[in-house]
Amino acid sequence: MATDQGPVVDSALLRSELVRLRKEKGLTQEQVARTLEWSPSKLIRVEGGKSSITRTDLQALLMTYDVTSESRQERLQTLARGARETPWWNKYRSLVSDGLLSLTGYTAGSSVIRQFHNALIPGLLQTSDYAQVITSDLANPTAQQMAIELRLERQRRLRERANPPRQYYLLDEAAIRRHVGVGEDPGIMPAQLKHIVDRVENEDRLVVRVIPFRAGYHQGVYGPFVLLEFEGELSDVLYLEGRPGTAATITGEDPQVAEYRDIFERMLEAALPADRTVELIRQVAEELEG
Prior knowledge:
GO molecular function: DNA binding
Protein name: XRE family transcriptional regulator
Mean pLDDT: 93
Distance between the termini: 53 Å
Order of helices and strands: HHHHHHEHHEHHEEEEHH
Organism: Actinomadura logoneensis
Domain HTH cro/C1-type: 18-72
InterPro entries: Cro/C1-type_HTH, DUF5753, Lambda_DNA-bd_dom_sf
Number of strands: 6
C-alpha cells in the first residue's frame, strides 16, 4: 500500500535515500551503472526524479548497496509504489503553472506548513466565495471553477491524511481588513474571517497569527512565501509567491531556505498571540458587517 504523502514527496524521499546509500558505499553513478549493466543515464534519471523505478530495478540497487533488511527494503518499495502513482492534481495541469503544481505536490506530503501572506487569505484557508472573487480575472468560467476546485481539494486532501500536517499561518493585518468581494456581496469577507476563526477553534494543528499595523515594518512586506517541512530526511522546501511566471520553488540546501525560516520566526515575534489574533479577526468581521 502506498503512503498518503503523495507521489512528489514519496519520490523525493526515495531519491534522497538512494543517493545517500550510494554515497555511503563510496560508489559513483558510473560504478553502480556498470555493476548493474545499466547505462549511466538510467541511474542519473532515477536519482534526478526524471524516471520512475520498477520493483525489480529497485531491488537490484538495494542489493548493490547491501540493504538486506526486509523491513527497510519494503519501506523503500512502498515509497517507489507511491512515486509511480498518478498525482490527483494532474487534472489541473492545464490551468496552473508547474511551480504551483510542484508546491501542491510537496504540500500534499508535508508534515509542517508555514505560510505568510501580506495581502490575501492563503488558499488553504479560503472559502469558495472568497476564492471566486480573487480568481475572477481568469480567462473563462471553466478555468475559474477549476481554480476554486483546486483550492478546496487541497484543503480536503490535507484533512483526510492519516497524520495531517501542522499548519502555521502568519498574516499581515491588511489581509484581514481588505474587504474582498465588497462589490459582489459585502458578506463574503466577514464570512471568510468567521471561517478562519471556526477552523482555528476546531483544529488543534492549525494556528493563525496576525502582524498588526502598529508593529510597523517587517520583512514580510516584500511578498508572500511558504515553507514546508517533511518527515524523514527530506530537506525543507521554500516557495516564493509572485505574479504568474515569477514564482519560485527552492529545495535542497539553498541558503534562502534557512534565511526565510529565520524571517518567519522573527515576524512571529511581531505578531499578536494566537488568542488575540482570534479576537482581532472577530472584531474585523463585525466591523465589515456593520
